[in-house]
Amino acid sequence: MLLSEHEWNALYNRILVGEHLAFSIGPTSGIDTVLLMRRCIYAVRIDSPCDFGLKPVSLDFLWSLLFTYGKGPMLCAFNGSASSASDPIDKVVIQRGKQGIDLLRISWNRDEWQFIADVAVKTLLGLGPGLTPSGDDLLVGYMSGLDLISTISSRAREIKKIMQSNVLSSLARTNEISQTHIRWACRGYYMESLTALLKAIAGGDPEAVGNNMKELLARGASSGTDTAIGLLLALENGKEMESSGYSLAN
Description:
Blueprint: H1 5-12, E1 20-22, E2 33-37, E3 40-43, H2 59-69, H3 74-77, H4 88-104, H5 113-124, H6 134-150, H7 154-168, H8 176-186, E4 190-191, H9 192-203, H10 206-217, H11 223-243
Antiparallel strand pairs: 1-2, 2-3, 3-4
Helix pairs in contact: 2-10, 2-11, 4-5, 5-7, 6-7, 6-8, 6-9, 6-11, 9-10, 10-11
């Protein structure tokens, strides 16, 4: 946690929604500026170092943490195992979730990403129960990965703009709370636990990556897991472009 519950409650009662908070001594995550929105903290987007690259990022390590500590029906979407779910809502999340995941896995080299993003957003947005549905969390995680890679890739910036346009034009598909969450993600603001993970990945610190990944996965009933899935899909796409010989350089 960024602040203790007592500190947070005292702070919340003294400031206004939309205000930025600056800390003279940064929190342990290394983030020193945050944005308050309702009772949530959104950390300001981090800037990757100039020598940041995806090659040192171990996706196998991150996927292993996801499948070890993750939870929720979106995990089953990778295997298409809707038959293993007894809850009818979970079955729908798994079935549509897999369709959305398959779309987001399509290479960024493809020219028809405007169409791909449109269908993916319409498939995922509003998918699942809760204040922030699983599909919404996955899209937020995907956009956070795009933001991270955008610091070194003009193509990632293009895809983020496409995703942002499609998400914002389809917000009526989800609830008001999640709409707020998504709007801030489109502007580059993410929950502190996700931003801490992005910072660790950019910094190339395996121990910090592991610890922050576990913290994110522990968030909510499945919110952290769904967010992490989206992030890893974006990182997977970025690494796929590198391995195919497409330069991520600006």
